[in-house]
Amino acid sequence: MLKILGRKTSSNVQKVLWCCGEIGLPFDRQDYGAEFGNTKSPDYLALNPNALVPTIDDDGFVLWESNSCVRYLAMKYGKGKLWPSDMQRAASASRWMDWQLTTATPPVTTLFRAFVRGDKIPPADVEAARVRAEEVWRILDAHLAGNTYVAGNELTVGDIALGNAIHRWYRFPIQHPHYANLQTWYDALCRSPAYKQHVLDSTSGNG
Is 188 exposed, middle or buried, given 0-12, 13-18 or 19+ CB atoms closer than 10 A? Predict the structure, then answer.
């Protein structure tokens, strides 16, 4: 059985759990990271030298980096679900995964640190992150005007990558611009039992 090493409140672990839920893949999750304090053990570092979560072990094949784990699991076990059989749609979904890492994550992470984790971040940096996050979601909102999900009319790995970030964005105690297409997309994600179980119901103050 697939092993997933990582605490369920981690946003990156949640991507992998959500992916498994969507494709019906059973797994054995074990607590690693944060309060469990075991990612720097010699055994864990032998699997993942970054000392981060998640790490997966699929019958001896070890992989880390959450988006890579999601791609792998969707391609191997999804049978066309989450990873489109059409090459162009698959490339589009993969593009949004990269966009999540390079464009969406930096401002959302700053806001998360300020509003959820309570880190001392200069107010000017928090405001700059808020403005940048609005710009990021405006880009996605415009794209979603012609798409139910980020790569067309079916849920893909692109949505898996971004679904955690948008949930956290809506939880921040700030005024949120009304992006109608973005809200409709988020509402669609919230109707997924796997998203509800692994993202909505598992998010905590340090997730």
Answer: middle
Cβ proximity of 103 and 136 under 8 Å = yes
- Please report, as a single letter, which amino acid is at residue 133: A
Q: Which CATH superfamily is domain 2-77 in?
A: Glutaredoxin (3.40.30.10)
Edge-first strand listing for the sheet containing 27-30: 27-30, 2-5, 55-58, 61-64
Q: What is the pTM of this model?
A: 0.94
Q: Which DSSP state fits 100? A: I
Residue spans of the domains in the chain: they are 2-77, 87-199
Chain-centroid distance, C-alpha 3: 18
Closest alpha carbon to 152 in 79, 113, 96: 96
CA Rg value for the chain: 17
Residue from 147, 179, 134, 164 nearest 54 by CA: 164
DSSP 149: B
Please state which architecture CATH assigns to domain 87-199. Up-down Bundle (1.20)
pLDDT average per 10 residues of sequence, the chain (207 residues): 96 97 97 90 96 97 98 94 95 98 97 95 97 98 96 97 96 95 98 97 62
Q: Omega before 54 cis (within 30°)?
A: yes
C-alpha 85/C-alpha 98 separation (Å) is 19
Residue ranges of E strands in the chain:
2-5, 27-30, 55-58, 61-64
70 touches 160 (CB < 8 A): yes
